[in-house]
Amino acid sequence: MDNQWKRFIKGESVESEVTPTIYRSWQRSLEYHVDHTLVSNQDILTTSRLSERRDSQESLIRASEPVLPYIFNLLGSNNYTVLLGDNDGYIIEAVGDTHFMSKAQKVNLSPGASWREEIRGTNAIGTALRDNSPISVFGWEHFVHDNHFLACWAAPIQNSQGIPLGVLDISGEANPDRQKILNIAMMGASMIEKNLRLFELENQLKFYQEGSKLASSLLQQGFLAIDHNGIITNINAYGAGLLGRRQEEIIGQPAGDVFSTPKGWMLNGHSLNLHLKDRSGKEITSHLNQVVNNSGKTLGAVGTLNISKATSLSNTMWIGNSVLSQRMLARVSKIASTRSSVLINGESGTGKEIISRTIHQLSSRSEGPFVALNCASLPATLIESELFGYVDGAFTGARRGGKPGKFELANNGTIFLDEIGDMPLNVQVALLRVLQEKEVSRIGDTKALKIDVRVIAATHKDLSVLVTEEKFRLDLYYRLKVITLELPPLRERTEDIPDLVRYFIDKTCNSLELPLLGIQEEVFSYLSSHSWPGNVRELENCIESMVALAEGPVLTVEDLPDEIRQSLQNKSVTKAEPLLNQQTKQAILYALNQTNGKIAPAAKLLGIGRNTLYRKMKDLGVNI
Ligand SMILES: Nc1ncnc2c1ncn2[C@@H]1O[C@H](COP(=O)(O)OP(=O)(O)OP(=O)(O)O)[C@@H](O)[C@H]1O
């Protein structure tokens, strides 16, 4: 039976008696000087090299994992082994019957061995890979005599360009139904190819998804996706921030529930507009374009989410969604529905004025005026006339025709008295009278004018201490603190920082007519680690200068002021108070010198508010 092989080895011509594929492979085996008498022990990987090779072929192994046992079961007999070879002919996986596998092992037909033609002569694995075509190699068709007990079928596993990535082999003892088993091998190879394509698609999809996730997170605009059932399938962090909620609270919700008031859905040809107005008057609009597939079926809609221009730059909007902010806003809306006086306590720049405006706007007086007066910014002698006004000739220097006071101007609305702790005692008496009698008389006038004004007072000082020091009247204190509201400093609600920063970037870019700048995520950790003694005002000034001086389209750590860039390292360093005071005093004097003693520009130069500057000047004994 092995006559043809014997005669070929002797050098006789047998070309017409064997299939051309086998004949060509025998000839190549001769050229490779393969020893036809002996099983080669060459090119067998050590266990560690084999596991490295398996690692490098991870997707081929994963794709064949369910296929090899399936093919083995399909063969319906134990006299086979199903092998996976890589593109170098190394066997990297085997499933089969232990009895046959131990026989196969004797000729190195087992994991770790390479069955390239160059090493083992004609064989199904090596020849299928060499010809990139399915093949069966039976008995004496193997070039090496010791392999003549084998019957093998192999089919290459190709990528989508037809390049062989590996090979699926079925080996056993000779079987008469040569074509049937070859078909099974080909089917196995094609199943592995399909799995590989699926992985490729999964990877591509993941790549696109990751890409779009990154793009939407970098987007300094809200991004929203809604499926054809109206369910929100994606919203970026910025968009969620605009809605004052977290991404995970919104994704999966019906869009109609999230955008409930006042206008809801508006379908308009191929686009869709959504509106939302929240408690503080912030209005959000979303413009979405429908996405359709090739057959015109609507898959959903994607688009942007913005604060509508009309309200985006209003200075009455409270930005921040931390637990503390939420708690405070809930209290503010309750306060707004009452008529009582309010006393707001909070450090400078925490938003006392903005929250007073919010109370006014949410109240039934919102159509009336909101009038603010800072008691620390005026000399004691002027406060009274500012508050109550005066008649013609009331005092030397009085304006001809007189002047209405802030109370008169605030009639039917709200008066906001900032830094009330700095109000002189004599004015406190007059204020108390106005509050009790609900009428005001201009200085020098005998007539009283009925007024209906809600008073919101604010201070960064502890008024009860001022009362014990007899700098503040107890009766006025009680009159004002009917309702109190504590504004937490920014360092206690650092979760608000990202929203505030994005808002200030938007606001500054708008006012400087610059294209909207992005911000590197890392910047937030620096901003959150700073203690912000000047609170939101200091943060606002910091962002304004970062935007104005920005080098590129995205604000980075490099754009941060030095002291904030160093704040992460300096957090543990204790402050040397007296030195700090000295330096603050010097900075104030320098700024005043630069601005010829003008308060507003000096405050701007220092990056603090006017009121803070007045207060610091008072505390540090700086006079102009
Ligand atoms: N939550 C906030 N959202 C948006 N802007 C804010 C917020 N809090 C403060 N600001 C901004 O910070 C700046 C300071 O706020 P505001 O004047 O209300 O603080 P304040 O507590 O009254 O300060 P001061 O006591 O020094 O007068 C303002 O420009 C204000 O618009």
UniProtKB/TrEMBL annotation:
CDD domains: AAA, PAS. One of its GO terms (molecular function) is sequence-specific DNA binding. Gene3D superfamilies: 1.10.8.60, 3.30.450.40, Homeodomain-like, P-loop containing nucleotide triphosphate hydrolases, PAS domain. Residues 318-548 form the Sigma-54 factor interaction domain. One of its GO terms (biological process) is regulation of DNA-templated transcription. Residues 223-253 form the PAS domain. Keywords: ATP-binding, DNA-binding, Nucleotide-binding, Transcription, Transcription regulation. This is Transcriptional activator of acetoin/glycerol metabolism.
